[in-house]
């Protein structure tokens, strides 16, 4: 289970394991959440250590992750939005370009748009989904 924290990637990179990690509460109501070590992740091209906790009752593992990142994505939501908005408005990928990764995002977004919103323009759909906080790459 991912728990969103108020932190930036830069704070996590600088403070590493000394960051002030707040212990989450478990939905099962257990009061004894254990520390479960750290896991290394790459977020916005920086390797950071994310804290994990474990509930002994329901055996769920909680990973604390900074706000602005979706699960299974290494790039922030804002960066993905800006890259897709640039290709839809200007017709070119922003620089510096990771063209293969951005093309993957574009294909996923187009698949979502065609499947769920077939009559809406891609640019306005992207802005509307981003403003409402909906994952636009499902």
Could you give a short description of this structure?
Helix content is 36%, strand content 21%. The chain has 4 helices and 4 strands.
Can you offer a commentary on this structure?
- This protein has 2 domains: about 1-65, no CATH class; about 75-130, no CATH class.
- The protein has about 140 residues and is α+β, with helices and mostly antiparallel strands.
- A hairpin with a 2-residue loop joins strand 2 (about 35-45) and strand 3.
- The chain has a 4-stranded mixed beta sheet with strand order 1-4-3-2.
- Helix 2 (about 75-90) packs antiparallel against helix 4.
- The protein has 4 helices and 4 strands, in the order E-H-E-E-E-H-H-H.
- The radius of gyration is 18 Å and the shape is elongated.
- The model has no long low-confidence stretch (mean pLDDT about 85).
- The longest helix has 18 residues, at about 100-115.
Approximately how much helix is present in the residues?
25-40%
For the biggest β-sheet, the strand order reads: 1-4-3-2
What kind of assembly state do the chains in view correspond to? single chain
Q: Mind describing the biggest β-sheet?
A: 4 strands, mixed
Q: What is the count of structural domains?
A: 2
Keywords:
21% strand, 138 residues, 2 domains, alpha+beta, 4 helices
SSE topology sketch:
Elements: E1 2-5, H1 9-15, E2 34-43, E3 46-54, E4 61-66, H2 77-90, H3 99-116, H4 122-132
Parallel strand pairs: 1-4
Antiparallel strand pairs: 2-3, 3-4
Helix pairs in contact: 2-4
């Amino acid at each position: 289970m991912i728990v969103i924290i108020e932190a930036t990637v830069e704070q996590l990179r600088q403070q590493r394991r000394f960051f002030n990690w707040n212990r989450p509460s478990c939905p099962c109501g257990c009061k004894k959440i254990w520390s479960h070590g750290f896991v290394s992740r790459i977020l916005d091209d920086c390797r950071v250590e994310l804290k994990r906790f474990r509930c002994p009752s329901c055996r769920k593992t909680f990973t604390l992750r900074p706000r602005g990142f979706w699960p299974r994505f290494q790039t922030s939501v804002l960066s993905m939005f800006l890259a897709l908005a640039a290709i839809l408005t200007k017709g070119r990928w922003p620089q510096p370009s990771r063209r293969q990764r951005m093309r993957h995002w574009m294909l996923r977004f187009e698949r979502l748009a065609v499947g769920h919103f077939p009559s809406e323009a891609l640019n306005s759909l992207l802005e509307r989904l981003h403003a409402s906080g909906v994952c636009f790459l499902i």
